[in-house]
Inverse folding.
């Protein structure tokens, strides 16, 4: 009998220690969002609204979809997100719709209209604004969302997986680097709008072993002149439009990427949203570069 | 289409009633579907005396009615009134059917001020939203003053000079705006949406912010009704009849700048209201300012309120920029009236 008691106490003790080792968020909680604004939560939020597709994807990846009561009209991934209540556009935000859904936490993005975000804060709702521009900041945004929602261990697990992908790609990329592939990223079909240094897509190209031809753009996003693109003679073109368009365009015919038949179409949503999917596609990009000359 | 005096008064009463109806309509519809009883209760709850008779209401309903719909409705009416009144002043004073808030450069000046605020303060993150109206206001006043100075020759403003200077400054500012957008394409969505105009983040403090400008502008305009009528006879004739043209010019430009600044600083550049509403009113009521000015002002309020209510409900939960709705509603109606009247009153 006494032995049983000791065992019981020991098990209990172990349980308590085990529980305390597991990361548990303590509420009330105050942290800084990615605009360095204070976010305070009195208790664990049960009704969350996401005002950006990247936030929605992170929330799903952390298993928080049951608490998600509203997403934007653009939140189409994972497919289950499309069935959730819609709050309209990213900009301008529909304040009345958001308020009517009684959110306890809004996960916003720098892309949302600032006046709308400020109005929501004024109306007494907790808003956390995320603005991930680099892989480090994407990982930080996952950490913040995990912390706010008491999902720190899930966030850690996801981050660990993503970091492993990043380091593996880095390793692969360093081998590809010797080929000195000049890569042009065509983000829309009508202009030479592309990603420059400081953007997560420039980081992706570099990691996967390519050299971004827009490395001297001087800002994260901007436009090159078509002449510059042609003069820099990219070996690889990654585009959001149908590659046949480029293959048939006489202006492009002398470009190395066209002659070597190295134009690849990508799914825009994956590349443009700073969420887990962006990092998960890195091996795919490295694989493309690997078979290129 | 000349109408008798008592019919005009009847029409004014009808318009006041339709303003009331438009307000009720806008209070009832929205992305949050609230039953009419809840809306009535929420309306009465914060009021003194009446509030005591109202039992429990969902605080969310009270917040939606009093913090979202009500300030938005009032702000839309205020801005519509300001734009229509300023438009009427410009059209009558310049005796030019194309004159509106854009011609004096006021609107584009405000737009440039806002775009500048977006780009320069883009990295200061916190205070941008508060700085935009401020810069827009300074831009509107600055440009109007500049155009006015450019057009002043020996203390008198030459109207053709003013129109041309206004157009030149407007083009200059528009090209500067485009240049800013090329350099700061990341902010483009914010700037563009602001330029298209809207009321999605309306708050009471905005109403208090513009009220002094709006009321001062309206008072000055209404005090000038007689002079505006005399000007319709021609500036020479008006001068002979004892109108102090120099003083009137200064007064009216000042009033119009106040009105434009009030409108632009809280809602961006909303097109067509300042151009079309005065014309429609003139086509129906004739050119006498005794009716034209107050009715156009009232019409502007009703028109913009309805346009904004449509903008926030028609594709709900998606909110349209109100500028799209004003042009979409205003232009066909205007063309129809134009075809019927062939601009008799100009």
């Amino acid at each position: 009998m006494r032995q049983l008691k000791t065992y019981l106490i020991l098990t209990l003790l172990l349980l308590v220690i085990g529980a305390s080792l597991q990361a548990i968020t303590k509420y009330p909680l105050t942290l800084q969002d990615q605009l360095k604004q204070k976010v305070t939560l009195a208790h664990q939020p049960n009704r969350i609204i996401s005002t950006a597709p990247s936030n929605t994807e992170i929330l799903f990846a952390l298993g928080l979809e049951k608490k998600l009561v509203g997403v934007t009209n653009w939140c189409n991934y994972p497919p289950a997100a499309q069935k959730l209540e819609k709050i309209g556009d990213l900009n301008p935000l529909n304040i009345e719709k958001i308020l009517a859904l009684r959110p306890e936490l809004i996960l916003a993005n720098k892309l949302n209209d600032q006046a709308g975000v400020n109005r929501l804060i004024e109306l007494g709702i907790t808003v956390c604004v995320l603005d991930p521009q680099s892989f480090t900041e994407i990982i930080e945004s996952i950490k913040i969302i995990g912390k706010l929602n008491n999902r720190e261990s899930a966030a850690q697990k996801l981050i660990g997986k993503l970091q492993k992908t990043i380091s593996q790609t880095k390793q692969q990329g360093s081998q590809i680097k010797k080929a000195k592939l000049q890569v042009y990223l065509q983000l829309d079909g009508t202009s030479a709008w592309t990603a420059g240094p400081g953007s997560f897509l420039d980081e992706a190209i570099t990691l996967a072993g390519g050299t971004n031809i827009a490395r001297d753009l001087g800002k994260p996003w901007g436009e090159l002149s078509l002449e510059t693109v042609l003069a820099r003679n990219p070996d690889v073109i990654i585009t959001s439009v149908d590659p046949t368009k480029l293959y048939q365009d006489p202006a492009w015919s002398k470009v190395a990427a066209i002659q070597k038949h190295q134009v690849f179409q990508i799914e825009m949503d994956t590349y443009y949203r700073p969420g887990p999917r962006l990092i998960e596609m890195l091996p795919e990009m490295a694989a493309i570069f690997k078979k290129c000359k | 289409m000349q109408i008798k005096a008592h019919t005009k008064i009847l029409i004014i009463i009808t318009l006041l009633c339709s303003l009331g109806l438009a307000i009720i309509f806008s209070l009832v519809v929205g992305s949050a579907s609230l039953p009419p009883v809840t809306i009535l209760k929420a309306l009465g709850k914060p009021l003194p005396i009446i509030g005591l008779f109202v039992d429990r209401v969902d605080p969310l309903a009270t917040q939606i009615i009093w913090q979202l719909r009500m300030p938005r409705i009032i702000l839309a009416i205020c801005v519509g009134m300001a734009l229509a009144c300023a438009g009427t002043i410009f059209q009558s004073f310049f005796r030019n059917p194309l004159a509106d808030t854009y011609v004096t450069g006021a609107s584009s000046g405000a737009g440039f001020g806002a775009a500048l605020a977006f780009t320069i303060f883009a990295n200061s993150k916190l205070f941008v939203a508060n700085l935009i109206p401020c810069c827009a206001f300074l831009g509107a006043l600055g440009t109007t003053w500049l155009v006015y100075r450019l057009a002043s020759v020996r203390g008198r403003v030459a109207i053709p000079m003013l129109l041309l200077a206004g157009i030149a400054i407007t083009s200059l500012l528009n090209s500067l705006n485009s240049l800013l957008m090329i350099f700061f394409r990341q902010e483009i969505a914010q700037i563009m949406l602001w330029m298209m105009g809207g009321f999605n983040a309306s708050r009471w403090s905005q109403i208090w912010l513009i009220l002094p400008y709006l009321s001062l502008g309206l008072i000055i305009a209404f005090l000038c009704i007689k002079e505006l009528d005399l000007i319709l006879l021609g500036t020479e004739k008006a001068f002979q009849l004892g109108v102090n043209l120099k003083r009137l010019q200064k007064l009216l430009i000042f009033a119009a700048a106040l009105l434009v600044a009030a409108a632009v600083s809280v809602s961006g550049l909303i097109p067509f209201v300042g151009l079309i509403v005065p014309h429609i009113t003139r086509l129906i009521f004739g050119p006498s300012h005794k009716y034209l000015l107050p009715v156009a002002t009232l019409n502007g309020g009703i028109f913009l309120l309805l346009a904004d209510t449509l903008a926030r409900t028609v594709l709900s939960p998606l909110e349209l920029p109100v500028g799209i709705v004003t042009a979409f509603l205003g232009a066909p109606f205007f063309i129809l009236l134009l075809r019927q009247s062939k601009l008799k009153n100009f």
